[in-house]
């Protein structure tokens, strides 16, 4: 399996920090905030009460699954039976569970050309054939593009697509599908027997100019939705997430969960339950307000640097930039140079683009989920370096 490049950059940055170098972190999608205070209090209370926090049912504790179901009703107006909710070890284990339950070796599964790298890496490791699909000018995979791939495969006698996986808001672009676009993808998938795996991990993190984040569950009973407490709930290291399975896959996913993981960490399940309570909301919305401010800092700095080839980031906490116009042809070397010369850590596009497309070599991702002052300092450093770079380019 190829490495997850952003984690390589994180390791390099940490090594430099250990040597005493100041690093400006614009690389990793890890909120700098802690889990919500209510979540921390719930775990402390459980520990103080002497609760052994032992194994739970593989699909998670009932109160947590019910609270997740309630969240779908409150946020999206969708009734989701708690029986279809499976608690997972972050969305990452949700991918493995879903792909193992739904796909066989040799199946063809589509992902957008530009997407979260672990989809491709996990699918390929499981022997699934990954089919990268072209996106539109805004990095969106639309129903029309999916249909044209379905038809082209039919015409040329290729095996039909068995699945599609994408995220909205997306990583690395922050691009969001409108509710109608999600509806269109759901309909096309359902009509063609394609399992739509909708990664909704960045739901809750979207900005004033964004469309409403619709869940695929609003439009399809067949869709499989994967989500996590890592991003909006600011709980990356707690390794806790969930998925909502279609009825036909729910039992298989439960059996896989029992055998592969036994259960998700119990302390994290308790924390997650508290994080879902209305009392935690103001703290979480405060993080989103900070991300919105940070997004502006990055966009303003890029504009001052003359960099305008930027994906429309309506959600998540990333800005994805194409530097091809400025002669950047090796984003890995470019990122390594930045880290080495000025301590700015960012992620090369080769992590996200389909290998061989040549696009990742021109593109970089900036993450803005840190403290506003750190983002400002990092962008200032980058802007100073950029002036010199342009002088020599
Ligand atoms: C789109 C997307 N999906 C899934 C994940 C994995 O998250 P976790 O396993 O922490 O839930 C990430 C992490 O950055 C992501 O960006």
TrEMBL record:
Residues 26-379 form the Aminotransferase class I/classII large domain. It holds the Pfam family Aminotran_1_2. Keywords: Aminotransferase, Pyridoxal phosphate, Transferase. It comes from the Eukaryota. Belongs to the class-I pyridoxal-phosphate-dependent aminotransferase family. GO terms for biological process: amino acid metabolic process. Transmembrane segments: none annotated. InterPro entries: Aminotransferase_I/II_large, AspAT/PAT-like, NHTrfase_class1_PyrdxlP-BS, PyrdxlP-dep_Trfase, PyrdxlP-dep_Trfase_major. GO terms for molecular function: pyridoxal phosphate binding; transaminase activity. Coiled coil: none annotated. Its cofactor is pyridoxal 5'-phosphate. CDD domains: AAT_like (cd00609). This is Aminotransferase class I/classII large domain-containing protein.
């Amino acid at each position: 399996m190829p490495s997850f490049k952003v984690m390589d950059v994180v390791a390099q940055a940490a090594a430099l920090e250990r040597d005493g170098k100041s690093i400006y972190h614009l690389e990793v999608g890890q909120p700098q905030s802690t889990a919500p205070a209510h979540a921390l209090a719930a775990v402390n209370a459980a520990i103080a009460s002497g609760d052994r926090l032992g194994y739970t049912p593989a699909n998670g504790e009932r109160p947590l699954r019910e609270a997740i179901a309630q969240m779908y009703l409150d946020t999206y107006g969708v009734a989701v039976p708690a029986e279809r909710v499976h608690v997972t070890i972050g969305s990452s284990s949700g991918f493995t569970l879903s792909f193992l339950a739904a796909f066989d070796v040799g199946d063809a599964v589509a992902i957008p050309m530009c997407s979260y790298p672990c989809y491709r890496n996990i699918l390929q490791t499981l022997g699934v054939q990954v089919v990268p699909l072209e996106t539109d000018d805004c990095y969106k995979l639309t129903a029309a593009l999916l249909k044209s791939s379905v038809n082209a495969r039919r015409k040329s006698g290729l095996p039909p697509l068995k699945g599609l996986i994408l995220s909205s808001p997306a990583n690395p672009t922050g691009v969001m599908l409108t509710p109608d676009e999600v509806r269109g993808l759901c309909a096309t998938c359902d009509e063609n027997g394609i399992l739509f795996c909708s990664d909704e991990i960045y739901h809750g993190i979207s900005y004033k100019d964004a469309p409403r984040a619709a869940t695929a569950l609003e439009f399809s009973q067949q869709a499989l939705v994967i989500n996590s407490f890592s991003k909006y709930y600011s709980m990356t290291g707690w390794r806790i997430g969930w998925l909502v399975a279609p009825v036909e896959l729910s039992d298989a996913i439960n059996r896989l969960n029992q055998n592969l993981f036994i259960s998700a960490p119990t302390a994290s399940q308790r924390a997650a339950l508290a994080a879902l309570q209305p009392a935690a909301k103001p703290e979480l919305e405060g993080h989103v307000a900070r991300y919105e401010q940070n997004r502006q800092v990055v966009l303003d700095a890029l504009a001052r640097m003359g960099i305008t080839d930027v994906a429309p980031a309506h959600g998540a906490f990333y800005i994805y930039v194409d530097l091809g116009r400025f002669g950047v042809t090796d984003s890995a070397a470019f990122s390594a140079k930045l880290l080495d010369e000025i301590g700015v850590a960012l992620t090369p596009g080769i992590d996200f683009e389909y290998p061989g497309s040549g696009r990742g070599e021109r593109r970089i991702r900036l993450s803005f989920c840190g403290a506003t002052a750190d983002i400002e300092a990092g962008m200032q450093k980058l802007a100073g370096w950029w002036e010199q770079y342009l002088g020599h380019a």
